[in-house]
Amino acid sequence: MNEAAVRFPETTSVTLTVHHLCGGLAGKQQVIRHLPVVIGRSHRCEVRLAPDDTAASGRHARLSFDGTAIWLEDLESTNGTRLNGNDVTRASLTSGDEIELGCGGPRLRITFDWPAAQWIGNAQSETYVLGTCEFPLPSPWRFPVYGLGLLLLLLPLWLGSLVAAVLLMPLGILALLLAWSMARINLTITPSHIEYQGIWQQVTLPWSEVTHLHARLRAQGRATYTIVGKTRRIHFRPPNDASGIELAQLIVRRTGRQWETRATR
């Protein structure tokens, strides 16, 4: 079995819009549909600045996408790169972030339409944009249990037996209630912790206690994720791959840890 950090496909559709706020091209916009791109005054840059934007270098910074986040990277520019007023060498972007290329140089606002990417960013922006969200996690057993409940309710009618009705119908009602509760499994994400509300248990795990992230990737079927804490752990299987990727991305940003993966058949 191979273990590595989770990598999500780079072919995910991401469209960026670069808004020139200050500089020789102030008021202009440019739509970017393919990453990576280089920002600078050089004519070879995909996001080209005005020749008189002398605070910016010829090849000043790069925007890239690794399948998990959109990244801003300074390319050893002469005057440095700022993100929302802070000097950075490499940082992930949130839609609406402002980039300054050199002190007093041209400023750009970056917006994008990839919903999951808007969850990526520093802790402050995550708290503001995301707050608390809840993901339903349907149990794979709910339909078999629901079917069993219906069978136990209908079997006495088919047999025409009062004794069978007395014995089996309460069990059928119990099975239906159990199946209903299985459809209400939730994973709640907050800025401070993650909470799993299952059929028989409820686990609250503060982000500060998370020690490992494990993902078991199956050739067929959904992946299984495990969040390991100092004394507790949470297992979950998202209803589909898309929601699984969103959850995995968000948990990585909250914990600062990478998923260790195991591929199984």
From TrEMBL:
SUPFAM superfamilies: SMAD/FHA domain. Pfam families: FHA (PF00498). This is FHA domain protein. The chain crosses the membrane at residues 145-178. The lineage of its organism: Bacteria, Pseudomonadati, Acidobacteriota, Terriglobia, Terriglobales. CDD domains: FHA. Residues 37-88 form the FHA domain. Keywords: Membrane, Transmembrane, Transmembrane helix. InterPro entries: FHA_dom, SMAD_FHA_dom_sf. It comes from Chloracidobacterium thermophilum (strain B).
